[in-house]
Amino acid sequence: MLQQSIAIGPMGFSLHQLVIGLAFLLALLAGALIGQRHRVAVSDTLFTVLFVAIIAARGVFVIRYWGEYDSLLARLDIRDGGFDILGGLVAALGYAGWALWRSPRQRIPLSGALMVGGLTWGLIAGGSTLIEQQSRPLPDIALTTQEGITTSLPHFAQQEQQPMVVNLWASWCPPCIREMPVFEQAQQAEQDITFVFVNQGESAQQIASFMNQYAFSLENVWQDPANALGQATGANAMPTTLYYNAEGQLVNTHFGELSRATLEQGLERLR
Predict the structure, then answer these.
(1) Conformational region of residue 68, where left means phi above 0, alpha means psi within -120 to 50, and beta covers everything else
(2) Beta bridge partners of 12
(3) pLDDT of 122 over the 90 cut
(4) What would the 3-class secondary structure string for 30-63 be?
(5) Minimal CA–CA distance to 253: which of 225, 233, 271, 236?
(6) What's residue 66's pLDDT?
(7) pTM score, two decimals?
(8) pLDDT category of residue 125 using cuts at 50, 70 and 90
(9) Of 7, 2, 1, whose CA–CA distance to 239 is shortest?
């Protein structure tokens, strides 16, 4: 559920990002209310905790997948969503502990704020994780191949008998275009994983024109003119990449543009 997405105008957000934002806002509110009683402000410290968490989460991820990036600029480009949540959490807790030790006056309001934010995130994320651990099979949605043949992901998975990566995309989506070469390379290299590219809402003619324009050589490019797959999976913004194991169960979702590093992170759970 947390990896479902919503579109707000031209912007797209995963539900997990919104939950983190909500938890931080509630932490700020709690810190302000408790801090008012103790005549001390903790908002600056909370923003620093968040900043430390983001920097650390990105840094740990880049170190883990250093060889998958071509340049320093690519390593700094956070549009690929490459973050190590555990690394960020450890760094944030470490900084928060140091701030509590350094400033005794902040201890009560800062502890209260961190507790409210942590509980909000933990309860929502934990509850959603328990739900997501239940069976989430491949959606049985009628799709159309480039040859005009009607098929479905469960039917195709039964034929292939291996893990499957499903990418939802559209030709008008710039991040979709930027990540296509990454998928093209991966499809050629990963013989034990099936890649399917399901276009959302466009005609076969538009898809063919797009592929010719950019000279992409991809297999399993399918058409979903009614956006039925996006609606069934909660992918309301693009691109979205879904990872299914060999049993056809969803094990991971990535919303937004992929790099070689973030794709590799997703594939690790399928091998």
Answers:
(1) alpha
(2) 7
(3) no
(4) HHHHHHHHHCCCCHHHHHHHHHHHHHHHHHHHHH
(5) 233
(6) 97
(7) 0.85
(8) confident
(9) 7
